[in-house]
Amino acid sequence: AQKVTQAQTEISVVEKEDVTLDCVYETRDTTYYLFWYKQPPSGELVFLIRRNSFDEQNEISGRYSWNFQKSTSSFNFTITASQVVDSAVYFCALSEPLQGAQKLVFGQGTRLTINP
Amino acid sequence: DADVTQTPRNRITKTGKRIMLECSQTKGHDRMYWYRQDPGLGLRLIYYSFDVKDINKGEISDGYSVSRQAQAKFSLSLESAIPNQTALYFCATSDPGGVRNEQFFGPGTRLTVL
Fold it and tell me: DSSP letter string over B28-59?
């Protein structure tokens, strides 16, 4: 069965520091998707990125970057020059085929606190 | 306007009460999902539906039931609420033909069972 592990339960850094959130996954599927979601204190889930298993190119979006390494089954997320507004719980998720659709298997989440 | 809405946003109820959480979407998606979030456990799938006539159990369906009244509406019921059903509940939709093939989440319903 699919599994996603976010080993870091909580991370606390000072503003402007770089921080990396780890995500390791397990799957037997050859085609799958990986996601990151942000959950700010207000509680909603904000989609950040989707990556398919055939695309191992790293991606950068502003201060956010993602490193996908199939060889180590990891999909890590780095925030450069962190800001207080980045404080949130971050979830990594893996798609699991579901009768032609997909369900998402979530990691436990990493609570990130950026201190001023 | 929000694409996926959930009502109520917050609810406190007592053990043994029946409660319904409602989800509506204007995205025109066929697929809808209910997840629950518990601290330290991430989100887990309760039920999912591919259309009005297709409803399926997820990994933690015990104690829950659902109703897909229309393409746009998917309700989750707790027939007899118990305290360990206290959680944050999310509804989501997806369109497999979408560019990013992602799931779109509602704002969540925070349920407390006393």
Answer: --SEEEEEEEETTTEEEEEEEEEETTEEEE-T
C-beta atoms of B101 and A106 within 8 A = no
Phi-psi region of B100 (alpha: psi -120 to 50; beta: other; left: phi over 0): alpha
Diameter over CA atoms, chain A: 47
Average pLDDT value for residue range A63-67: 94
The mean per-residue pLDDT over the stretch A40-57 comes to 88
CA B29 to chain CA centroid, nearest Å:
15
* Chain B contact present for A44, CB below 8 A: yes
CB contact under 8 A, A106 and B56: no
Predicted confidence (pLDDT) at residue B97 exceeds the cutoff of 70: no
B25 DSSP β-pair partners? B4
What per-residue confidence (pLDDT) applies to A54?
Answer: 86
Contact A102 B104 (CB under 8 A): no
For residue A10, the surrounding DSSP H or E stretch is strand A10-14
Rounded to a whole number of angstroms, the distance from the CA of B88 to the nearest CA of chain A is 9
**Given this model, what pLDDT does residue B2 score?**
62
Torsion of CA A93, B74, B96, A28, to 10 degrees: 40
Q: Is the per-residue pLDDT at B21 higher than 90?
A: yes
Q: What is the SS3 assignment for A59? A: strand
Tell me the β-bridge partners of A75.
A68
